[in-house]
């Protein structure tokens, strides 16, 4: 098997692990691309070997951020029906086609989300955003170009400070932007006209899992009666939650919290660093997807459509999708 192709795949996996590639959409597209790249150069002998290598590659990529539903869905959509092909060429072609489809449909989704979401922002608005979401920024920037946004407030987004990326990105495009620390959110909420954030995962009951601190923004927005909208492509909706699974929250360890010191500089101190939190649907006005602007309570409809589930969902369906992933 082509060693260079494996090296490239592991490099993508490392870039996702160390956050050089981050954000739900970007990691999903990177994984889809890495799988296609591996398939293109695969030079083994049997379809069984190809399937085994695809499954190994899928597991390596999935392990990088195992709780990221976008990553899982990006992989599953890329691999859909590949095992049903009876030749190596057939499998490779289908996988590469699915990968292209996933990547281009995910770009198109962002374009549609920007158009739909911008209309939810009234002229003269000050918008608050959190972390660094391509989907939320696509909406905010479209609204700015349409003359609807006067100013954006961007939280710093500790511990990793993705808010710095957001603030710079907006400033480069001449969008007036103010950065605040996360704990200043309630202090400023009455000055905001709308809160606009992205999502890592959306569950079957309409809860949104996004960067830690998102639920505090939602709570403060709810108290101030400020609309709170979430911008997310449909592949961020989780099928597993329809079958009862709970979404695991990633903990990235003490280093990011202790920063700039080392965890060892705090003798006797324990650290917790959950990097996502859960915002319940009652605090969310709408979710802007490429399928339209929906109520969070419509999440099941999106999940059924995306995974082509008609009628009752079977447990086999969940097991079927698990087949690609194994302990690495
Ligand atoms: C990023 C984050 C983003 C969502 C959506 O977290 O929480 O809001 O991933 O991003 P991290 P996008 O930096 O830990 O990946 O809209 O770009 O998919």
Care to describe what's here?
It is a single chain. It contains 12 helices and 10 strands. It has helices spanning 3-17, 24-41, 47-64, 69-79, 88-118, 134-145, 162-172, 185-188, 214-224, 255-258, 299-306, 315-322; strands at residues 125-129, 149-155, 177-180, 194-197, 201-202, 208-211, 228-231, 276-279, 286-289, 292-294. The longest helix has 31 residues, at 88-118. It has 328 residues and is an alpha/beta fold. The chain folds into 2 domains: 3-109 and 317-322, Up-down Bundle (Four Helix Bundle (Hemerythrin (Met), subunit A)); 112-313, Translation initiation factor eif-2b, domain 2 (Rossmann fold). Bound molecules: ribulose-1,5-diphosphate. The site of ribulose-1,5-diphosphate (RUB) has 16 residues, from helix 2, helix 6 and strand 6. Ribulose-1,5-diphosphate (RUB) binds at residues 22-26, 131, 133-135, 162, 198-200, 210-211, 275.
Task: Give a topology summary.
Layout lengths: L2 H15 L6 H18 L5 H18 L4 H11 L8 H31 L6 E5 L4 H12 L3 E7 L6 H11 L4 E4 L4 H4 L5 E4 L3 E2 L5 E4 L2 H11 L3 E4 L23 H4 L17 E4 L6 E4 L2 E3 L4 H8 L8 H8 L6
Parallel strand pairs: 1-2, 1-4, 2-3, 4-7, 7-9
Antiparallel strand pairs: 5-6, 6-8, 9-10
This protein binds ribulose-1,5-diphosphate (RUB).
